Amino acid sequence: MSTEVPTPAPTKGTEAAALLPAKVSATEKFKRLEIRRVNGYLRIVNLILGALMLWYSGNLLYNTTTYKGVLDALFLIAQSALLVLFELRDNFPNVAQGMHDYLGFMFTAYGRATLFLVMGTWAPTQDTTGIVIGVVFCILGLINFIFILAHPSYKQAMADQSEVQAPVAVVVVEEAKTDYGATDAPAKAV
């Protein structure tokens, strides 16, 4: 008794292609990324590296012996504090509108990449730790630039996020003041 096992007949090329998963290009995978999640990861990395740069520049300020070193450290402290405060803007609603008004360049690909490149090229002027931090900041600037500029839904995601957190406008009606002169000081009682 021989039992033959049936073998499937060879399929045509189109049928076989329909059974295999379609190849997706790298650009298509990039466009399919969930931008809110990626932006959250970028914010965490920005916060960690900003805090690292803040610590590094504070340590540099403490250990420096030259006037140039003090100025370098103060510059790096200001830039890293700016980055940390910008990334924490959602935690401070009173500051969020000011951040949007005065740090608007951080919402653009060119502005954010420029800040990271300035920090990344300034830090290596100090020592080997600065070189490592500087290279990481330059790479982070490039990654932020690519995501902000090239991702098709980044602008829409940020617009939706800012609409949710938009501050409520309060209208204050002031009473009419009498004209006291140039200083608006009340008249002195004699």
UniProtKB/TrEMBL annotation:
Q: Which UniProt keywords apply?
A: Membrane, Transmembrane, Transmembrane helix
Chain ranges passing through the membrane: 40-58, 70-88, 100-123, 129-150
Its chief place of residence is membrane
- Listed GO cellular component terms? membrane
InterPro entries (UniProt xref): Golgi_TVP15
Asked if Transferase is a keyword of the record, the answer is: no
Q: Where in the cell is it found?
A: Membrane
Membrane topology (UniProt): Multi-pass membrane protein
Q: What PANTHER family does this protein map onto?
A: TRANSMEMBRANE PROTEIN (PTHR38894)
Write down what this protein is called: Golgi apparatus membrane protein TVP15
Give the species this sequence originates from.
Thraustotheca clavata
